[in-house]
Design brief:
This protein is mainly alpha-helical. It has 17 helices and 2 strands. The longest helix is centred in the first third of the chain and has 29 residues. The N terminus and C terminus are likely disordered. Pfam families: MIP.
Length: 361
Amino acid sequence: MSNLNRLQTNDLEIGATDAVQQHYARHVVATKPVSQRKLDFEHSRPRWLRECMAEATGVFFYVFPGIACITDFTLNGASPLGVSAFGSIFQIGWGFAIGIAFAIITCASTSGGHFNPAITICFATWQGFPWRKVPYYIFSQIFGAFMAGMLLMGMYWPEISAFKAETLAAGKPLVANGGPASILCTFPNPTQTNLGYLFLTEFFVDSYIGIVIWACLDPANPFVAATSAPFAIGLAYATMVWGFADIAISTNLARDLGTRIVAAIFFGGEAFSYLNYSWIAILVNVPATLFATAYYEFLMRDSLSKIAGGHALHESGEEGLHRHITRTGMIEQGYASAIGNGRAAQNGTAGENGLYEQKTL
């Protein structure tokens, strides 16, 4: 068999080569060649614009199905058990979970898939993400949530208007948990006046989600593949919705601030002043996620496993890794391959986003 017939591999057995040839030949419809014009157009697009659009689109994909489920649930009324003919807290949790998974699947390959200002700040703090990109990533994330809220108001405007009129006729507030504004962003129950309690609840929920996200993105974690990470992260959000949605949680600065601006446009500035709660919903996510990622970095991260898997290099190269292993005696099964993997990794180049090329989010 000629080298050409063997796909110029030379080192494959004939049976394997035949299988590869059949795989590449199995096209139902021939793919359209990529034109030079298309390549030139894509090359001319600014990278920052692609990243911003991906972050905004991803947040939109995450927020829109979640608040749509909340709208169904709120407009159609709920029983004392939290169930209506059109949904439940369980459905809302799944709306956010699947929305997050879709956001990661569709947009993370372009921007790295932060979709949360706190995550962007944590990547800049721990993983070398450029600080110069942080402001426009955060702006894009908030803009995506804002657009999700605006589109939802447009699509449900007749129903929301009728619900607003009913609420006013009944002498109930527009801005309150269960009111029209609550379809867009979080408000506490009227009895929840203890801001310290609300702060701790939000801090715990966001820390829980942050640890799960950081574990899913750890390239040394053998239990999470890149294909399963979107759904694992989505389920982390869903479990917190199922457990704590009835006592007011936000989970994401962009998700809350973007839709809260929409709520203020349609229902008044009380969307920000109600029970002095909005600062908790907007800001607590950042310190909580920083705490969660610091917890993982300082107490759970195993960077030697990361190097052993070929996902990182020692700052001093192969020589520094030799010194560390010699000094610590860490010649355990698996770690010995770190030097070889480190040498192989040096032959490639790490992308600007680094971690995202290893396990995309």
